[in-house]
Write a structure and sequence with these properties.
Shape: elongated
Keywords: ANK repeat, Repeat
Strand order of the largest sheet: 1-2
Pfam families: Ank_2 (PF12796)
Structural class: mainly alpha
Order of helices and strands: HHHHHHHHHHHHEHEH
Strand content: under 5%
Low-confidence stretches: 242-248, 260-286
Length: 286
């Protein structure tokens, strides 16, 4: 006769969901939940962490998915540090699997615009490093992250990006600005992103990097106004409507005019680099 499977031994009262998670024993965890009906949201350890958070800290991907599908709260922040599952994944999980796990939680209801106890969303946290740019794109373009959210100290994603110690973070700054980050919103000490870059420029050992950021933040609003006003400017220039000149107009705007085959009449105050434009054009772009 075939041998019958042995009935599992009764669970000891000392065996908890936290034991199973720490051991990475999904089978045992399922049994505990099914036999005892343990709540996945009300049972916490001494630090206030739920089973889901312990699974995240221990980087147990299969257990994380099981807990979420079994009803674990993906927005809980009731541990000692008021961390949410998204915050824990960002800081606790290896980079190779981190982004996939973040996307999984977001797809299962995790709110990207809820911060931790300090008000930090994962977009703010991610904005400090250039290697996070793919994640930043996902958060902004697909997950609905608020690009101007500020933490409890007034730090926004843009300010976090500007304060980064990584001197290759300009692509993140450009991405945020070009997708709606407000360069004029005051942050800590009532300073804007441009103010912060000015301060860093004065004391940095990498002045050229901060100079590039400074130039970009200053020129971007002008470029945007230029794009909106270009049809009018083009018509004025072609009709030689010149009333007065303004020196020092940004050369990137002059370059765009030049590329459109629009000419300015020569004068002793105009160089080949087109360093001045008509006052009417200037006021169109103000």
């Amino acid at each position: 006769m075939p041998k019958k499977d042995k009935a599992p031994k009764p669970l000891s009262d000392n065996v908890t969901v936290f034991n199973a998670i720490s051991m990475g024993n999904l089978k045992l965890l399922k049994r505990i939940v099914e036999e005892r009906g343990d709540s996945l949201n009300n049972v916490v350890d001494k630090y206030g962490d739920t089973p889901l958070k312990i699974a995240i800290i221990n980087q147990r991907g299969d257990i994380i998915r099981y807990l979420v599908e079994a009803g674990a709260d993906v927005n809980d922040n009731n541990n000692n540090y008021h961390e949410r599952p998204l915050n824990l994944v960002f800081y606790s999980v290896n980079h190779d699997s981190r982004d996939d796990l973040l996307k999984y939680l977001i797809e299962h209801g995790a709110d990207v615009n809820q911060g931790d106890g300090y008000g930090n969303t994962i977009l703010i946290s991610a904005s400090g490093l250039p290697e996070n740019l793919p994640l930043i794109r996902y958060l902004v373009e697909e997950a609905g992250a608020d690009i101007n959210h500020q933490n409890n100290d007034g730090v926004s994603p843009l300010i976090a990006a500007c304060r980064s110690i990584d001197i290759n973070n300009l692509p993140v700054i450009k991405y945020l600005v070009e997708h709606g980050a407000d360069v004029n919103t005051p942050g800590p000490n009532n300073k804007t992103a441009l103010n912060i870059i000015e301060d860093l420029l004065k004391r940095s050992v990498n002045p050229q990097y901060y100079q590039n950021i400074y130039n970009y933040l200053r020129s971007y609003p002008i470029q945007q106004r230029w794009k909106k006003s270009f049809p009018k400017v083009k018509k004025m220039v072609r009709n030689r409507v010149f009333l007065n000149e303004v020196a020092g107009f940004p050369q990137n705007v002059a370059k765009q005019i030049s590329e459109q085959s629009v000419g300015f009449g020569k004068s002793r105050n105009r160089s080949s680099k087109l360093r001045s434009v008509d006052l009417d054009i200037f006021y169109l772009l103000k």
